[in-house]
Amino acid sequence: MNATKLFSLQAGKNEKIHRAFMARFLLVFCMGLISLYGVAQEKDSLLGIQLNDTTQPDLISRLRKIGEQAAQKNQTKFKEEQVAARQDNLFENIKKITGEAESYVETGIDSTGIKEELEEIEIWYTIVSDGIFTNAGTSQTHRNLSTSTSIVLELLNRATIRKNQVDGYRRDLIGFRNVIDSLASDSSLYNFSLDSAVLVSYIDRLLTLASDVKPTDSILKRAIVNIESLQKHVNQLENKLHSGLDEIEHYRQQVSEKTFYREFANIWAPRSFFRPIGVILNYSVAKAKLVLSFYSKNHRGKIFFVILLIIAFFLFLKSLKEKVKKESLSRQGFDGQVILRYPLLSSIMIMLNLFQFIFPAPPFIFSCLIWVIVSICFTVIGWNYIAKYWMKSWLILSLLFLMACADNLILQASRTERWIMLILSLAGIVYGTMALVKGKKTELREKNVVYFIGFVILLELISFFANMFGRYNLSKTLLTSGFFSVVIAVLFLWTVRLINEGLAIAKAVYQRKEGKTLYIDFDRVGEKAHPLFYALLVIGWFILVGRNFYLFRFITEPFKSFLFEDRSIGRYAFNISSVLIFFLIMGLSVLISKVVSFFASDTHQAAGVKEKRAGLGSWLLLIRITIISMGLLLAIAATGVPLDRITIILGALSVGVGLGLQALVNNLVSGLIIAFEKPVNVGDSVDVEGQSGIIKSIGFRSSILSTPDGADVIIPNGDLLKAHLVNWTMGKSRRRRAELLIGVAYGTDLQKAKKILEELTADDKRILPYPPPIVLFQQFGSSSIDIRLFFWASLFNEAANIKSDLITAIDRAFKENGIEIPFPQQDLHIRTVSEKNNSISGTPDLKK
Questions:
Q1: What is the DSSP letter of 54?
Q2: Spatial contact of 671 and 701, defined as CB atoms under 8 Å apart
Q3: N or C: fewer beta carbons within 10 Å in the chain?
Q4: How many whole angstroms separate alpha carbon 482 and alpha carbon 16?
Q5: Looking at the predicted structure, is the pLDDT value of residue 708 above 70?
Q6: The pTM of the whole model exceeds 0.90
Q7: What angle do CA 696, 698, 699 make, to 5 degrees?
């Protein structure tokens, strides 16, 4: 029972009690007056005298006492009823809170699952501690510290989530207990009635309530004790992870500061610490699995997004390959069309290379998997296309790259690994030198690879000597960076090459058709990527190579602070990253909508060649509007723009609409109406105000009509709705009635001519037999008898061809049957002029 109902019921009870009290008081007062009047008129039964004025004050005082006693009695009863109402309310609330508490405890958190997860976190932290806090050796390694940092951050995040969950559960339990205690300690519960019967009944209720509350109170106490024990465990684990993370970060700073200092003895000197390489490999693999599993789960949405991009680009390349085969463009020399050899592998290579940057701070094993997949795709794509010498060089480089990746996954230094690193760096030096000195540079398709090979030689040479003289972390960083840099450079160069090749082929394909397709203008895009794209790839190369160095953090931290530092304009706070995210999401939504339109319009070709399914164009417009609307909402949500700011923007837009955007809004609304009502669809053959053609696209503001002359007519959607639109493809039947006017000479056998026309129409399979063709003799013309032939073409776009063929057939048949088709002629009769009256007989006078 809520407070409002209690207040109204209590007020009603008070009013009833007050009315009863007043009625009783008036009754007692009237009875007192009547008795006073009777006594005043009688004699005293004992004294036998008449009462006088002296006896009146005693009677009045008696009446007052009677009234006071009645009032006191009623007030006492009123208070008892108030206390009873309060007690009923307390009883009800205690029962309600008790039931909620029992239900909450029964459906509370899974303490067993939390304990198991905390035990897993402790096991994982033990794995992380190996090589850092235990079995550390003589020096820490940069790779071990960076990998362990990623794992501990994930463990700390999980522990923090569980801590918040446990703290909230304990807070709720204590809240239930406090509410029950506060209700049970209310003084109103212990105000007992003076009526013994009421008192006995109330005591019985109180004992029943106590018996009901006691088990719940015990349950709450046990739950609080258990959750406090679990809370203590969580807090200890969280503090342990915090201190471990701080210590690891301290070690990382020390390793970074001592990059050029000796960490181990020379490679030929006796070792001071020994640990079997097998044990090191086991815990390195365990850490790699952990960090890969955590990162993949945390970024599965982005992984799914990249997979969708790969599928979309694969469909585009597949359709492009089919068009190249159909239009015989393969002989025009698109440099081998490497991108179309394996569309799926090309899609994987291009998308992974370009969109690996959307993953923030990926662990090395995640980046390594991406590079290995792309390398395999490139090897298959370039097989039998790249010169044999350079393909062998690429295979050797790929092998060294894989060995460097495997070595970089080893997280603790050992003498065995140092020898392996020495061999790898020496192999890199020898390979690079031979490639530069004896390499067939004329057969090299990407000439810039030579510079990266020289860069590899330099890094591997420094790594070789740093390893020999005990600079382990520096040597390993340079060793891996050298191979990574050249492999990533080769993959990036070939990615640009494939993109340029794809653009050139797409431009040629769609230029042969219409110059552009729906929303992608390949003439404007060009045959090569934009120079900004090259600059971004160079920056990406520096980022991927720089991630191997701890100093890279000192370069990126100021940039991160610039992006994520809060700024304010008035009362509105924002940061640069939120603004960039807004435009990025909007750009992606527009791009996705255009990609959807592109693939949906892929079956559309020139007028009369191929038609789209009816209704698809309108649905495309709705899908595009939905994608962009969702993108706008996501962009606003991502940037955290307050709703009051959005209302201001909408108000400004309404003012703009009222001032001068009526036509634009009219066209936009008309586009929505077209999308929902579907009076016309992409691919429909229509007549609009004398213009005939095929609807090429339906956009937000306007639609494009492709005419048979090859022109594209842009029609605003508002005008399209207002016009008297003739849609030849809207109905299920595609037939069209056509007519042909024929003239025959006077004296022709008309029935014979009619029979010939009927036979000719019956022989043409493109003319429908039902409704049957009709031959009508229209009129006697000046030079011929006019005949009008009506027939139904099975396809509306074949009517013109049928008329052309019929004219040829009619001319041939009429000639064979001696029927003349006259041409317009006029007879001129000349008569002699009389000299007398200068006139022509039967005609008016001719004046010279």
A1: G
A2: yes
A3: C
A4: 95
A5: yes
A6: no
A7: 125
